């Protein structure tokens, strides 16, 4: 298998590990009345990222590569609006990465295309979901009063 494909899959795995940490932390710290809704939603998103990491990591191994244990910088915040916009940004980047690797393997490895397309659909669902939530005026109103985010 092409080393460039393995490298791109590792870039994706790194992104998924970032999602595991970023969404988990959001689920741990989200507070206020809406914690009841969003804590589980973020923790489910962390589980989805781990599920994707598992599939991609196993595939990297099967292709003869070494699955990365690295992750990118996590965006930390205690502000719900920022958590949601971070989520939208994360899912959009995932859609972009899976499309990039798909363009590399399309027409060359049908099973890998099918595997990646299934994940791509879930990433797009994430984009759609966060986009819909962010349309809520009460969520958007928080954009004005939100606290500064901390990089970490
Ligand atoms: Fe994912």
From TrEMBL:
GO terms for biological process: intracellular iron ion homeostasis. One of its GO terms (cellular component) is cytosol. CDD domains: Ferritin_like. Residues 1-141 form the Ferritin-like diiron domain. Keywords: Iron, Iron storage. The keyword Lipid metabolism does not apply. Signal peptide: none annotated. GO terms for molecular function: ferric iron binding; ferroxidase activity; heme binding. It comes from the Bacteria. InterPro entries: Ferritin-like (IPR012347), Ferritin-like_diiron (IPR009040), Ferritin-like_SF (IPR009078), Ferritin_DPS_dom (IPR008331). This is Ferritin-like diiron domain-containing protein. It comes from Bremerella alba. The lineage of its organism: Bacteria, Pseudomonadati, Planctomycetota, Planctomycetia, Pirellulales.
């Amino acid at each position: 298998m092409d080393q460039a494909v393995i490298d791109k899959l590792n870039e994706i795995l790194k992104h998924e590990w970032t999602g595991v940490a970023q969404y988990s932390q959001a689920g741990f710290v989200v507070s206020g009345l809406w914690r009841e809704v969003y804590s589980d939603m973020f923790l489910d998103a962390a589980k989805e990222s781990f599920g994707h990491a598992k599939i991609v990591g196993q595939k990297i191994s099967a292709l003869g590569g070494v699955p990365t244990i690295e992750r990118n910088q996590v965006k930390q915040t205690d502000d719900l609006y920022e958590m949601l916009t971070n989520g939208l940004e994360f899912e959009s980047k995932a859609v972009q990465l899976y499309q990039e690797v798909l363009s590399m393997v399309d027409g060359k490895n049908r099973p890998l295309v099918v595997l990646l397309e299934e994940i791509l659909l879930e990433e797009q669902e994430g984009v759609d979901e966060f986009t819909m939530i962010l349309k809520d005026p009460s969520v958007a109103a928080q954009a004005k009063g939100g606290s500064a985010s901390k990089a970490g």
